[in-house]
Structure prediction request, 492 residues.
Amino acid sequence: MKNSILVIIFVAGLIVLNPGVEVWAQETHVGRLSHLEGKVFFQSGRSLEWVEGYVNSPVQEGDRIWMDVAARGELDLVNSVLVRMNSDTKLDVVRMGASGTIVKVWIGSIFVRITDDGNRENPKFVETPDGQVEFLSKGLFRIEATQENSTLIRAYEGVLETKSSTSSATLRKGELVQINQNGQLTSVTPIPQTDKDDFTIYNASRDERLVEPESNKHVHSSVTVGVYDLDYYGIWVHDPLYGYCWQPRSHAGWAPYRFGRWVWIRPWGWTWISYDPWGWAPYHYGYWYYSSQYGWMWKPDRYYGPHWVVWTAHTSSVGWVPMHPKDAAHVHWSANGHHWQADVSDPVNATLNPEIGASTFITREDFQQGKLIKSNEEIVKVEKSEISKWQPEPAQDIKPVRQAISKLPSGKVRDAEKTSPDRRLVPGQERRKVPTQRRDVQKQRPQSERPPQRTTSEKAETKKDETKKDTDQKKSDKEPDKDPEKKPEVKK
Prediction:
């Protein structure tokens, strides 16, 4: 299996040293939202706030992900796991790392593509309220947790084992099984030829890009997330100074860390979310430099960071510039690799070839609100003479504010939500216990968890409906049914 990722954690309370900054490194693993059609919402850790997610948003252990109505998306997780989510699907990323990957599907339908067999030390599971699925080989699988208290499991490629509270079964290519309401497994049967829908088409379109990437030869073995995009959107070029580096297909006026947004995400702090569809690995693992022959080039590294830039700030703007491979010489690791110090007061990309426009500036307001920058017309022009100094982090007085882009899931999804994380669970009803030692997702969430509150317009609409119902009820009381034997209709 791929080696563990030693990553750099940029925490909010950085300890500012003179002349550098010290941050702690620990072993952790980060995935990403790799594709999106429609809208998706995140709850991170124990936060009760739903925040809208975007392509290239980081995904970490403890995240709850909620697909909106008529939306579809894909998670690119460590351990070579791709999870495609259908409309109105809610799941938790329970575990992701050297000890394996566990995803808990509360409701909805997912495709799981395992691209590497790995080994038994890194098991891969999907759990539902009805049972558990373990993937025993690479392949393509579909798991659907329905509103009818059942789970439908299909194996299109590869082998899996499923367990319920009462029994277990092994599925191979072309087979399906269902865990019904009482926890019983149905007989294993072939997948019908007609078993196709729009979600199947979406899954096939995502699979079309999964060719064995050349990029695997040039990035560290621990870097598995976002690698497939590199061959699709660029080429590898050998540089005599830096070895094999990656060149994106770009346009005039493009620069690294130019188009996208900054978002405050715990535990790292300010995190770059790129607007570029390939914008994961090149912005979180390595450095950028400008070649007179090839243009902008990315030199890969093995260490994760929420960004690799150097900052400056003015009265009304915030600026940053990508770190150059030569800047890495100012990053000093301790003997045990537990922390590093950086002193990049004179970043190479800001001084070498200034005509390339490596630095990017936006207003403080746009920065703090996480505004998406799509064009050069949205950036601020700052003269080099106005830059007083470069520093490892933004000025301490630049704090994140509640993002204007943060929204709640749409009405249909909200209305279906109950106070329990599992919408199918009737309040007070005990869940069947699955024989497993894996962590119980329920225990990770506070009992007081509630769905997002309705907007003012939705409350007004609800009040209007209630008024209409009261009026109709009064009319019904005045005009009793002529047929005493006729039962009243029940509105569903």
Notes: Helices lie at 198-207, 228-233, 281-284, 348-351, 364-368, 411-416, 456-478. The first strand starts at residue 6 and ends at 8. The chain has seven helices and 31 strands.
